[in-house]
Amino acid sequence: MNEFDKQHTIAKWEELLRKPAKVTETREFPSWETVAKRSIQFEYLPEKSSNSNVVSFFRRPLGLAVVGGSTLSLAAALFFVFLMNSNPSETNHSDLAVAPAAKTTQETSSPLKVIVSSVKGKVSVLPRGSSLSVPLVKKYQLASGDVVITEGSSQIDLDFETGSWMRITPNSEVVMDLIEKTNEAQSQKFSVKKGKLFASVSKLSKDSQFVVQAGEHLTQVRGTVFSVQFDGKSEVVAVREGSVAVGDLILTSKQQTVIELGEPVPSSATPVSPKEDKELKAFQTQTILARESMLYEEHARLELVRLEDGTELRGVILGQSETHLHFQGLDGLIEIPIQKILETEKIR
């Protein structure tokens, strides 16, 4: 049974467990008040205990019992004498090896939640360890080692619990090499075997990583909107916002690089082509709208928080303390200092 079938089966079981059986629904059960008024039919009468205070778990000859009791008495006496003669002050502390308990703090990793947000056309996933691909559907959770395959005119959007967003375009094959997290960091590694992906990556913590491999090179991200394309002969990395590192080359806003297979990374970047810039802009806008729609579906409202420095944050106000506003933004939960807020506004 593959991962898709497992999730489908579990969902069916959960649905069945929510409903009581038909027999249970048709029967009338007495209330607690009725049961409390009923007379006792079977009264509990404990057996009379024997006069002996000795509890025996097995039978044995009396002679053995006497010998065993004497032996235990002698051992107890010797132990008492040993305690009386021992002197703590004369203990040789040099002979004692006291090893302090070492406190090991080994962090355990767990799967990072990456959910299918939308599917257009025919998209399938090859689960890790399986030779049979299954169709991808909305709300499917991907795991490390899964391979996402899109056919012609199909694409898929992935929603990361970190606030990041990824789109895999038609005729692509992308491997989810590693999508895990600990209490302190997230590890996100992907391989583009063919095709193209767009990604909007939320700001990463110090020890977190978001890496995409295409061809012979790695693209490392800290927080940006970018694309990676690979056709088997060349790799194209383009950036709309933020910065990425391709080898020793740093790409910033509206820059790109083209790397031919077998060739080193160019020493300098080039401007993003008009076609790529248009596609990146469309992806960024569609990502924002998709995140807003998801928040609206969950909370039935959408709000705008405008800060003193002109920054505008779109999302949902969850509450506030004396000093901070609890805000669910497009990139996740944040705490906004109240003194920095200029005004709030309801969008819808």
UniProtKB/TrEMBL annotation:
Gene3D superfamilies: 2.60.120.1440. Keywords: Membrane, Transmembrane, Transmembrane helix. Residues 146-244 form the FecR protein domain. The chain crosses the membrane at residues 62-84. This is Iron dicitrate transport regulator FecR.
